[in-house]
UniProtKB/TrEMBL annotation:
<dbReference type="InterPro" id="IPR009836">
    <property type="entry name" value="GRDP-like"/>
</dbReference>
<protein>
    <submittedName>
        <fullName>Uncharacterized protein</fullName>
    </submittedName>
</protein>
<dbReference type="Pfam" id="PF07173">
    <property type="entry name" value="GRDP-like"/>
</dbReference>
Length: 240
């Protein structure tokens, strides 16, 4: 709290850090809450902020700002909503992170999102990000497998997209130093368990691997072959 207050004062010296409700005018039916009075707001903002922090880690990669990549994400998001309409909104479908990013962006315009959902799905599609258990047999895992299956059946393409899949838990946060402290003093020693990820820009290429198994082949023909292609042309091939 103190470090936040200090940073706020440095950045906004003429704006008070604590909001003064007395400077606003309200209608006659609304009264400012009294000191210590509980709010009627039921949504847990603390837990929601923690979930959004984890979501931000999943989408905070350079290709998520690439216009070409986002155009593809937009088309996939439309396909995701169409898949929902085909299931008559009775199933829990799991978005990949490129689709989820577009889903979040769509909700920023509340009226647009509401009108679009009612037009496409005849109802408002809630964004439930509280389902985070990825253990085998969990609701999230079963729904994810089902989404992959339905996508492949409907569109004839794998649901997986390079750079849009779950990449593990977020790394440990870098602590914000208080006055008189340095970041270096707060980090663990060399060889400790501090985790970090690099942020270098990179090119993204999607590779789909198809494995074909044939039975009763002669011994001389029993080998596996993997080839890589780009723009429809084979670049390399490996055999074993």
């Amino acid at each position: 709290m103190e470090s936040t207050r200090r940073l706020w004062k440095e950045r906004f010296p003429h704006e008070p850090y604590l909001l003064d409700l007395t400077q606003f005018q309200y209608d006659q039916q609304w009264k400012p809450p009294k000191q210590g009075e509980l709010s009627n707001f039921k949504y847990n903002l603390h837990e929601a902020a923690a979930r959004q922090s984890a979501f931000y880690y999943q989408v905070s990669r350079s290709h998520m700002k690439d216009e070409k990549y986002l155009r593809g994400a937009e088309q996939r998001y439309k396909g995701f909503l169409h898949l929902y309409s085909l299931t008559q909104n009775k199933l829990f479908l799991v978005p990949t992170y490129d689709i989820d990013l577009l889903w979040h962006a769509h909700q920023l315009n509340v009226k647009c999102y509401t009108d679009d959902m009612r037009r496409i799905l005849d109802r408002l599609l809630p964004h439930d990000d509280s389902v985070a258990d990825r253990t085998p047999g969990s609701r999230l895992e079963k729904s994810s497998i089902l989404t992959h299956k339905l996508w492949l059946e409907r569109y004839g393409k794998p649901y997986i997209r390079e750079g849009a899949m779950y990449r593990g838990e977020p790394p440990a946060p870098v602590p914000i130093p208080l006055q008189g402290e340095t970041v270096t003093s707060l980090l663990p020693d060399i060889g400790g368990s501090f985790r970090y990820t690099t942020k270098e820009s990179r090119e993204v290429m999607q590779i789909t691997l198809t494995i074909v198994r044939a039975r009763d082949l002669p011994m001389v023909a029993r080998k596996s072959s993997v080839g890589s292609f780009t723009d429809g042309k084979q670049m390399s091939q490996f055999s074993s």
